[in-house]
Amino acid sequence: MSDAQVEVSEIHWLMDMFQTVDVGLVVLNCDYRIQVWNGFMESHSGLSPRQVRDRYLFDLFPEIDEDWLRRKCDPVLLLKNRAFTIWEQRPYIFKFRNYRPITGSADFMYQNSTIFPLTNTRGEVTNLCLIIYDVTDVAVSRLELESMNHRLHQLSKTDFLTQLHNRGSWENTLVQEYKRIQRHQHVSSLLMIDIDHFKRVNDDYGHAAGDEVIREIAKLVKKNLRETDIAGRYGGEEFAVLLVDTPEAQAMYFAERLRKSVEKTPIRHHEMSIQCSVSIGIAESARSMENHRQWIEQADKALYFSKANGRNRVTLASSMPSEEPETS
């Protein structure tokens, strides 16, 4: 085989590889007009090399952010350096649909890219080459892992029965709020809420009904919250609500609205209708409190005063008599 024949064969092989390689290959001139378009790009865009030849890239693909891509490419033209893009920064350059069955949850192909200069025989940069890598499998796996970790983190903070914050998560939030109001002299209020005669509910209707009562009252608590308020299940049939930047007078409005809402809402369990009420204690934050536990203790004392004085009522810690009666 002659040298000329070898060269022709090599060119044929290169062209065959160029068309069948599983990456996108695009060559642009310095005016961002398409000069070369391989089989990968044709397959995913639906446009043949003849259709894109000499077309202005940003006219043909208006979804590409021209300013962003030029900021990536212009230094390549000027400095003869390579540039790279990754899907974490921008999901794709070319908005190709994703057709892989394994990663079917992704609507579009996630892409990494390499951009490098092409020079003529005099060493002058005349063109840019973009290599487009399909990294959808990696991207989807990473995103699913991050989503799962986020869900696990949320589950670790959430009470399963009520979907409120669990005791640990809620108390951590209270600690942070206590530190904030001590630094900035803000005022917030803490509510402790207890379902009245809950043991009687379990005894009369069963523990499944008791769980339903806890769930439904938790829904009423959430329904009355503002976005900045934090509610948690403190334990058993007891809830805690932190009303941020809220003095006790405003907290009393919230508590009374919640108390009346519970009182007027019969809870359905199978064919049974269960009537419930709650007792509530409120404590406003004070500079004299040495730690967040003292805040909880003040709200707890107000709660037990409510329970000892007839239940289905709200008590402010600041309005309690100095000697409170025994809890019945």
Explain what the structure shows:
- The termini are far apart.
- A hairpin with a 4-residue loop joins strand 1 and strand 2 (34-37).
- The strands form 3 sheets. Strands 2-1-5-4-3 form a 5-stranded antiparallel beta sheet. It has a 5-stranded mixed beta sheet with strand order 7-8-6-11-12, sandwiched between helices. It has a two-stranded antiparallel ribbon with strand order 9-10.
- The chain folds into 2 domains: 3-143, PAS domain (Beta-Lactamase); 158-319, Alpha-Beta Plaits, CATH 3.30.70.270.
- By secondary structure, it is an alpha+beta fold.
- The radius of gyration is 33 Å and the shape is elongated.
- The longest helix is centred in the middle third of the chain and has 22 residues, at 136-157.
- The protein is built from 11 helices and 12 strands.
- InterPro entries: Diguanylate_Cyclase (IPR050469), GGDEF_dom (IPR000160), Nucleotide_cyclase (IPR029787), PAS (IPR000014), PAS-like_dom_sf (IPR035965), PAS_4 (IPR013656), Rev_trsase/Diguanyl_cyclase (IPR043128).
- It catalyses: 2 GTP = 3',3'-c-di-GMP + 2 diphosphate.
- Its cofactor is Mg(2+).
